Amino acid sequence: MASQDIKGTKPYTLLAIPIIIWTLVPLLWTLALSGKSPAALASANENTLGNFWPKDWTWDNYALIFTGGASDLFLPALRNSVVVCLSATVIGVILAMFCAYAIARLNFPGKRVILTTALTVSFFPVIAMVTPLFDLWTKIGLFDTIPGLIIPYLALTLPLSIWVLSAFFQAIPWEMEQAAQVDGATTWQAFRKVIVPLAAPGVFTTAIISFFIAWNDFVFAISLTSDKARTVPAALAFFTGASQFEQPTGGIMAAAVVVTIPVVILVLIFQRRIVAGLTSGAVKG
Amino acid sequence: MSVTQTDPPAQASSKKKKKQVMTDRAKAERSLGWRLAGPAFVVMVAVTGYPILQAIWNSFFNYRLTDPTNKKFTFLNNYIVALSDGVFWQATWVTVLITIITVAVELVLGFIIALVMHKIVIPRRSLRTIVLIPYSIITVVSAFSWFYAFRTDTGYINQWFAWLPGIDASTDWFGGFWGSILVICLSEIWKTTPFMSLLLLAGLAQVDASMEEAAEVDGATWWQRLTRVILPNMKAAIMVALLFRTLDAFRIFDNIFIMTGGANGTSSLSLLTYNQAIDRVEIGMGSALAVLLFLFVLVIAAAFVRGFKVDLTGGRN
């Protein structure tokens, strides 16, 4: 039976090869560009594999963004990105946790309204929110500040967290809490030893997904900052070369690799949970 | 006698009392529910509802940020100007074009990937992990990667595909409209197909395997099993995936901003709004464009929910 299963899936295994190539080539390409000298970026003769991989790998681009001319652009942007995205994620997930608990466990009118609002809001065109915020932020002094980004980022992280977390919480077997109490556990023990371990993976997964969404944002970042609070995606778009005669390509791609590595590691470790989180809110069941 | 006489009122009163207790409990639950859910709901509505309402209000004014004293109420004038300008309709056409191309390609590609992930046995986990990676990549990074890949100086595409007619080392993909659109779409497809295929995979997992086997026993071909058994049974998942991706694709901004900046008529509605509101600080006109974009999104969502009967909160109550 098992061997028959494998036999039947052979065409699918073959199809997996182009899928993997299609996914990985742009990633390898980003890596290849980050190791190219200005000469290799200008001439195909300096590269192998059809202008793909550099013949001489250089770390100059990484030096440029960490210690060189682009470091005062990249390092603050990296710090801003981490601070803004972590804050928006933590605030969003904590607020959503209480909300999702209420939706999963309590009976009150308006549950459907909350879920529908969360879903509707997550499809608002971000640019439609930017114009009035830009106007207001410049008037009240929130333009180009960290809180000035965290607030609109809540519009990205909060609806998603409510939606995904309520799906997770609705799947928790809450009656186990009572079972533990019948077995002699106190309310607090039942909560800490039974419910927290069941709920934690969902909360954690929601935090990862919502962090990805905030980390990816470009529209808010370029519209509501000018230089002090600029995040990485916005900074990348305004990168300049080591001198004004040089293309910023190598530096951009080195920075791209640096901000990509942590998220790829998260995906590698938590693949199964992220998939569960992404699909739980969207499909019945 | 006296007992039977007093019994019914007593029963009634105890019933009433019980009902009273239930309402108290329900009331307490209701108030606790709103106390727990309220803060999240209020913050969510405040950070999104306020800007939308403010945008609608601003759209009725001729208002430049650098010239606030000349702010003038012009009612629908901004809308009339926008709707009678070819630039707006070009941006609408680009947005619709990109949405249709990317969603259609992603549906087919995403379904193939989902099917492979569903059926494959050997590198099952690694395949799912690899497929998921582009989802986590910043869109701007993906845009730069595809942009440099197609450039004549830095790129490898012209070298790799020089054997195809019409492509050689000097093919300039960003010189015209269709070349630019192609690369923009490719980057968008690469980045967002994982999401599509995961939603479809979840749909596939819900198709009863025994039905497929029964069809096979009855002599159905592979194609018949796909179109008569698998696809009809995962229609709900397909519709949800289509709705999610269509609304997402309709606000395309990052890829166009990085690759062309709107050159060769490739500006989308989001980019046009950005140029008006942020670059030229025409808050009034920018808001009018934002409201129009918002209306388009509402119409698309309503069409899906009404027309295709997509039930998004199904099974959630």
Key features of this structure:
heterodimer; A: 285 residues; mainly alpha; MetI-like fold; two-stranded antiparallel ribbon; 2 strands; B: 317 residues; 2 domains; two-stranded antiparallel sheet; 13 helices; 74% helix; flat; disordered N terminus
Report on the structure:
The complex is a heterodimer of chains A (285) and B (317). Chain A is mainly alpha-helical and 285 residues long. Chain A has a single domain, classed as Orthogonal Bundle (MetI-like fold). Chain A contains 13 helices and 2 strands; from the N terminus they run αααββαααααααααα. In chain A, a hairpin with a 4-residue loop joins strand 1 and strand 2. Chain A starts with a helix and ends in a 5-residue tail after the last helix. Chain B is 74% helix and 3% strand. The interface between A and B is large, with 104 and 105 residues.
How do the strands and helices of this protein lay out in sequence?
The complex is a heterodimer of chains A (285) and B (317).
Chain A: H1 2-8, H2 10-34, H3 38-42, E1 47-48, E2 53-54, H4 60-66, H5 71-105, H6 111-121, H7 126-140, H8 146-170, H9 175-182, H10 187-216, H11 219-223, H12 232-237, H13 249-280
Helix pairs in contact in A: 2-13, 4-5, 4-13, 5-8, 5-10, 6-8, 8-10, 9-10, 10-13
Chain B: H1 2-58, E1 61-64, E2 67-73, H2 77-83, H3 86-119, H4 124-136, H5 139-150, H6 157-160, H7 177-205, H8 209-217, H9 222-233, H10 235-250, H11 254-259, H12 269-279, H13 283-307
